[in-house]
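Bench notes, afternoon.
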Amino acid sequence: MPVSLNDMRFLIHDVLGYEQHYQSLGLNDPPNRELIDAIIDEAARFTETELAPLNESGDVQGCRIVDGRVITPDGFKRAYEIYIKGGWAGLSGDPAYGGQGLPDSVSIILEELMCGANMAWSMYPGLSRGTINVLESYGSDEQKQTYLTRLLTGEWTGTMCLTEAQAGSDVGLAKTRAAPTADGGYAVSGTKIFISAGDHDMAENIVHLVLARLPDAPAGTKGISMFVVPKINLDGSPNNVTCGGIEKKMGIHGNATCVLHFEEAKGYLIGEPNEGMRYMFTLMNGARVVVGLQGVCLAQSAYLMAADYAADREQMRSLSGPKAPDRPADPILVHPDVRRMLLVQKSIVEGGRALIYYTGQLADQVAAYSGEEQARAEDLLDFLTPIVKGFLTELGFESVNHAMQIFGGHGFIRETGVEQYVRDARITMIYEGTTQIQALDLLGRKVLLTQGKGLTAFIDEINDLAGEIADSLPDLSAKLKSAAREWSGLTLPLAAKAQQNLDELGAAAVDYLFYSGYVTLAYCWARIARTAAEGDENDRYLAGKLATARFYFARMLPRAGAHKIAMEAGADVLMSISDEALTST
């Protein structure tokens, strides 16, 4: 099993108190522990028996085009049919349109188990969540009835079609056009690239959310509108949407990343004209949390493989004397630097999962609360989203590379399977906005533009926790307080420098993201440590959590200091060198 169910349950029930959390939301029928455990068990059974066996074969076989249609790897379509029959597609959807109405945080449990078993497969149903969220928020009643009722059963899947060859993260450069038609619809024309799950044979229809320009639209991002464009028209006829090719990728071979051509395809405007960018962020923010989760899931799958390998692989003797004298050599698990790599992975995986689950609870609160409580949850969620996406994918990639290093030469060949995780993980740092885009969003939009509302709220959370553990974990408490104080203190000078020269913002942003990420995971590990310290001191499982928390504070949190020094170095060291000196050979 590529996921530790014990660790999931420990976080859900003991650290984050899901049952009490759901009761606090004012739900008519809040999920209880029994239901949560049943979902974990059933989802784990589905993913272990149906998805995990297809991970390697799907990577080897990949997707192909036959007679103009994308065919997914063997077994993918059958697994999707089982997924639909299990009712998984509508787990957290609106009951008015066939969903089960469970909170978003429940869906994260399912997402983690699916992604941990088979990331490429999980992206097919996973892309539908963004489509569902946008239609629930901005679709007309007719659009909801038409599309949500089929998306929430899983009969249809969804995509988001944003990127064009000349317009990657700069969506304002998009050239796709939408011309009004006599029947009240629109003829959408243009080419979109890098469309994950853009075409496949697993569902009856695919609902594309397409960003395009109306004829009288203003230039740039202010002139972007959003349209729903089905692959198959509502009358059953083929729409003018064709797959122009499948990208030849480094990883996630089992998912069809498509070039899509829209040639006067029939589409329908979502919401108001020229509001597509605003709607896109509804879609993107949820997707960014899922991509952060992908980084954690791949890290965990690779970590569990590396831990098993380290316990079995015999190489040399321990420097301090034989640890397995009855064996020809000691297992590499006894060597200090192998333990360091495993602990880095373990601290990333478990701390990252805690952060993802915490953001899931915040999403629940945004949906259920109102007034000041809702505003605070929204500030925290908005602030943490770029950290989740940018930081956890970067650390996820570091983690899978440590797993390959532990395997040595056996990791570099395909036979063991760990190299697939390295290839698959690399895309998570790029799509849904690169690390650099997330960093600019965090520092520029979520901190400076809001005058630090989310940052202030989160630092308050850190200080509250540090106070709560001052007696039980004084060493961690002191380090938390120090980090919160330093984080607050370094932000204002950055803001002042950025007011004088905006290049200072760009020069500091990625280091600020990493600094923020390390402090944020320290908060998560302190919560885990608090729960562990409250338990039986003779419990080996809890002792392991405390030991890992102390490793994180001793070995991982200090990395933030290097990022502080780097961001304080300023923009001049980057901008003073001439373009010619950078580009000439």
